[in-house]
C-alpha cells in the first residue's frame, strides 16, 4: 500500500542472488507501474522497463528521443509499485561517458536493481531495425568504465549490451562482450542473435550472466524457456510483449465500440472492477484510513478542554 515493503538495496541483493542460481529468470517488460504490480502478482521474480515501451507510451519511435530524466521518472514510479527487482534499458547512457555516469546514479536513486548500456552510437535506434551503427569498442569500454566508477551500490547490476552482431558479425560481438566484461560489466546482453547456434556460441565464450532478448517480430528466433535454460542463459527477456498485447486489445476494442455503439460484447474480455480493486489493494487503503482516523480521544484531550 502506497509503496513497496522492500528497499532498493534489498531488491538489488535479491536480484544478484537470483542470478547466481542455475535457473532461468523470466523477465517481462512492464508497460506502466500497474502492470509491474501485475507481473509480481502473477508470480514472476523480476520486471523490466524497456526504452522502446517508454518511447511508444510517449507516442515516439525508439530512436533516442527520450531523456535520462524521463526514464528515471518512470522507473521511480514503477519501483514504488512493485517489490520485484527491476532492470531498466538505459540506451547508450544518453550521451558521453560522463552522461553514462550520471545515468547510473539517476537509476540508482530511482530504486532500480540494475541497468543496461549499449554500444550503439547516440542517438540510437531499436536493436532489431536495419541501419544500426556502433561506436568503436574503445569508446564503449570508456562508457562502461564510467558507469562502474559512478556506481555507489556494488549490488546495482551493470549490464552491457552489444548490437555489433548485425553490424560487425558474431565474432566481433563476442570480442566486444569480453572487453566490456574486462571493463567491469557484470552481465552481457547480446542483441539480435540470428539463431540458436549463435546463442550457444555466445554462452561458450562469455563467462558472466547472459540475457536473451525474446522480443516479438525481431531478427532472432523466439526460443522457449527450456531451450534457453539448456543453453545456459540466465535471463529470458520479454520487453514489449505486454505493450503489444494491450495495444492490440485496445485497438480491437475501439473498432468494436465504433461498429456496435456499445461495449457490451467486450465485457468478457475486460479486467473486472473487483479484480482491479484487488490489484490496487483498495481494502488495505480502507483499513489504513480507518486506523488513522477512526479513533476516540482520551478524556482531557478534547478541543476546548
Beta strands, count: 8
Q: Can you list the strand order of the major beta sheet?
A: 2-3-4-5-6
The secondary-structure element order is: HEHEHHEHEHEHHEHEHEHHH
Number of helices: 13
Walk me through what this model shows.
By secondary structure, this protein is α/β, with parallel strands linked by helices. It has a 5-stranded parallel sheet. It has a 3-stranded parallel sheet with strand order 1-8-7, with no helix packed on it. The longest helix has 20 residues, at 241-260. The mean pLDDT is 92. The chain contains 13 helices and 8 strands. Helix 2 packs across helix 4 (68-79) and helix 5 (97-109) runs parallel beside helix 6 (137-150). The chain is 46% helix and 11% strand.
Summed up:
The protein is of the alpha/beta class and 305 residues long. The chain is built from 13 helices and eight strands.
Topology:
Elements (H helix, E strand, L loop, with lengths): L7 H12 L5 E4 L4 H9 L5 E3 L1 H7 L10 H12 L6 E4 L7 H13 L4 E5 L18 H14 L6 E6 L2 H4 L1 H13 L4 E4 L5 H10 L5 E3 L11 H7 L3 E4 L2 H20 L12 H8 L1 H12 L12
Parallel strand pairs: 1-8, 2-3, 3-4, 4-5, 5-6, 7-8
Helix pairs in contact: 2-4, 4-5, 5-6
